[in-house]
Amino acid sequence: MALQRVRPEEIEKRSMEIIRGELEGLGPLPPADRLPVVERVIHATADFDFRDSLFFSPGAVAAGIAALKKGAWVVTDTNMARAGVSQSALDRLGGQVRCFMAEPEVARAAKDRGETRATLSMEAAAALDTGGAPLILAIGNAPTALVRARQLLEEGTLSPALVIGAPVGFVNVVESKELWLDAPCPRIIARGRKGGSAVAAAIVNALLYQAIERTL
User: pTM (2 decimals)?
Assistant: First the structure.
């Protein structure tokens, strides 16, 4: 198979054209508001299963875009996801991205309580002073983060503008995602075992690019 000669600035555009073409070949496209998210996740993973496995609560995309336009703070459960979120797009909107997993106090508290750092990082997110900015959770690795975030939501100590739930793996992964399907807040969930930090970051970026009206 001969390699295609593609200019660097054309690679992403060409990738998106291929993704759209293959999606059209699979049947009806996802709804217009969800399509950019689905395409961005497939771009990050080359996995077309996300066409069907991404769950969107009603108005979730609009809620995420609105929150980002208000300078939302995005809290991730891995530094990999944090690094994957477009800082330049966030800067344009006055937002921030944080990850508490490597914070010494989180590690100490997790050890003392016999909990995961991901669990404690959600408590840190709940206690975060955003100065009135909305909070978005982007969880791509730890099911325990999703579980604790759901508990904090029920307790009334966490009020996210959007929850992105995309842990990957085998132990409690599916179950932690299912907890969010009927949650009383906007949410985008990668159902099943698949997910990961790249998926969580891709969903955030898809919303960011719509918020700043980036065409690609």
Answer: 0.95
**Is 43 a catalytic site residue?**
yes
Complete DSSP assignment for 132-155:
T--EEEEESS-HHHHHHHHHHHHH
Per-residue pLDDT of 43-77, as tens digits, reads 999 999 999 999 999 999 999 999 999 999 999 99
* CA gap 205, 208 in Å, rounded: 5
Name the amino acid, one letter, at 59.
G
C-alpha closest to that of 36 among 208, 206, 161, 212? 206
Give the whole-angstrom CA distance, residue 82 versus residue 76. Answer: 6
Q: How confident is the model at residue 81 (pLDDT cuts 50, 70, 90)?
A: very high
DSSP secondary structure code for residue 1 in this structure: -
Query: 59-84 burial, b for 16+ CB within 10 Å, e for fewer?
Result: ebbebbbbbbbebbbbbbbbebbbeb
Which tens digit of pLDDT belongs to each residue from 120-172? 999 999 999 999 999 999 999 999 999 999 999 999 999 999 999 999 999 99
Catalytic residue among 20, 34, 43, 98: 43
Contact 18, 6 (CB under 8 A): no
**Which of 181, 209, 205 minimizes the C-alpha distance to 53?**
181
Token digits of residue 110: 């997790």
Judge whether 194 and 168 are in contact, CB under 8 Å. yes
